[in-house]
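This part of the workshop introduces the protein records we will be handling. An example says more than a description, so a record of this kind follows.
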Amino acid sequence: MIVLGLSGLPHSQDHLRRSHPGISKLDERICQGLDSAAAVVVDGRLVAAASEERFTGDKGTGALPVHAIDYVLREAGVSADDVDVIAHGFDYDRHRRAFEITGAPFDEVYASATVVDGLTAAGWTRVAERFRPVRHHVAHAESALAPSGFDSALVVVSDGMGETESLSVYRATGGELEVLHTQPIATSLGILYSIATRFLGFQFNSDEYKVMGLAPYGDPERFRPVFEKLARFDADRGAVVIDWPAGALAEPEQGYPHARAFLAEAAFTPSEPDGSIQRDEADFAASLQERLTTVLVELVGHWLERTGERHLCLAGGTFLNCKSNQSIADLPGLEGMFVQPASGDDGTALGAAWSAARAEGDPVTATGPFDPYLGPQYTEDQVQAALEARPDLTWRHVGATDEYFAAAADDIADDRIIAWFSGRMEFGPRALGNRSILARPDGNRIKDRINGAVKFREAFRPFAPAVLDEDVDRLFVTHGFEPDRYMLCTAHVRPEARRTVDGIVHADDSARIQTVRPDLAPGFHRLLGKVRDRTGAGVTVNTSFNVKGQPLIMDPVTAIDTFAGIALDRLYIEGFVVEGTKA
């Protein structure tokens, strides 16, 4: 059976912009259905997945993922007519009446027909008869459960909102999800964190990771009472309690002005962000992060104890917060933990496909660690054609030889900053060694050099390390759970290793690690092995190959053009070494 999974609501953001002309850029993502993606599952096996933003360059787009659909079907070697089921990671139709009562633009934005009609307009036939809407939180839950390999587990989903939920707790046994607890949007931890992000002058539903990065520079004690009053865990009910004042969540399209006014009165009036670390803002971020982590740990710990489960699956945008994930991993008695690398809404394309496959009787089994390298890859001929179109650049072909890997390792050891483009593109927001910028972690002013001259981003933003599995225990303290493979959990740096990895140590002595093993990333593992031969440690800075506001790079043309515009020393791309512009 062939199942196409989709995420996104094609008209959601367009409707927001039309109905609120002049809307702030900071508020353009206060809507459902962004981060559209496509995935294809064949006989229960995930073959390909990609986000639409990578093809169009429109970061976080929710547009119908026609380019991603075209790619995943080509990768699977099937046509649109071969698809048995089209699964979509939203099921608003069951809530039509409730939404229409509120005056929501149901038919224009939320109805399944928006996707059905879009595919029909794109040339598909028999769409309605093959279409299966999947509840949003079920799609999230399945995206983590299916690849986890756990026979039974606690599954927790937390995000801004699904159709009507913001939190769902399930018990999974034999692939079946039993609902244990759900909570409505008014008690959303995700919305709380996003409103606080917007309060600090960052973009809602986009820049939460910046707040997470700012938090270690602050003192959580100062604003702790504000957040302790606002959010807590009720152990009697097993529920998260959010105590916004009446009317605080009104006018979301204006950036939740009433909620922000409440925060200003309770805390302080924030300054316009300028990329520097301001004391008020850092203390606020620290208090917010502490409260989120405390509530999540209490929530997950409660339901693990109540169910007796020892394995845990997490999904939803909240669980892209790797600091909170680290504390969850510390829970006693936990034997295994899996966090979907694409925990945002792009990941619901995977979950919707797996959920529909199960419903149709197709077995879904994990045969190994989840492979996130699901996107397009390119041949040497395609790369050479892209290079020949840039006569201003100097380049040479080496091939995927020992010389090629040794040259890249030499550059890293010599404190150069390189881009590394290899194999299939990653799915999800993290660069995991196939579309990465790499550097020596103890390089001279390495954070400042990459932030300022390469990435053009805030100085307080940390960098993550990619580290060989055989070196991780002597450099970092971890539990060895699966999230370590995907930069989804921070780890403490061992004091004796501090100098070796100084450029990736954050203000709280943590690092968001990617443990690299040969089973998933043989080429990247090989490169880090060469780095280890030269430096004594198989570890590099690993940050995404893109610049501020740009999606993770997918194709050779974009890679080469981006390289030519920023201060990278060399680009290594499918056996070619690009030196830079000609004199």
Q: What stands out?
A: Residues 492 and 510 are 4 Å apart (CA to CA). The two ends are 56 Å apart (CA to CA). The mean pLDDT is 96. The first helix runs from residue 12 to 19.
